[in-house]
Specification:
- With 131 residues, the protein is mostly helical.
- Helices cover 73% and strands 0% of the residues.
- The protein contains 5 helices and no strands.
- Helix 1 crosses helix 5.
- The longest helix has 28 residues, at 2-29.
- It is elongated and about 50 Å long.
Length: 131
């Protein structure tokens, strides 16, 4: 049991390091997405960041179940960031799962990726600040 908790704590630390740094880098490098469409590699990085956010929130919930979290406010910010990244990551043309579900999908998704990464960065920083 101790090994599981230790592994979860290490996984949380890794996600805490990767997510804000990755989102900041993506937002800075993604400013050009306001003017052009993202490449397949940029979508891949975005989906990796989305799954990292989902992993981080899942680990926090598990640690909360083990009694290692006192408050749950920070999870609200984490869930919002993870959901935002996950849904916007589904806008990839033409096979994106979220894009297929929309009646009128957006013509340009580059700005959505930029703004989602920027807002998710703010939410993930707030997630870290409310621990």
């Amino acid at each position: 049991m101790e090994a599981l908790v230790t592994g979860l704590i290490l996984l949380r630390g890794l996600a805490t390091l990767v997510l804000p740094v990755g989102l900041a880098a993506f937002a800075l490098l993604g400013i050009r997405l306001l003017l052009r469409e993202p490449t397949a590699r940029e979508f891949g990085v975005f989906r990796f960041l989305a799954w990292t956010a989902i992993l981080q929130v899942s680990v926090e919930v598990l640690l909360g179940l083990f009694g290692l979290r006192n408050g749950w406010l920070h999870l609200t910010y984490g869930v919002l960031a993870a959901a935002l990244l996950h849904f916007v990551g589904g806008l990839e043309a033409p096979q994106g799962w979220f894009r297929r579900s929309l009646n009128r999908p957006p013509e340009r998704v580059g700005p959505y990726l930029f703004w989602a990464s920027f807002i998710a960065l703010l939410l993930s920083l707030r997630f870290l600040a409310t621990r």
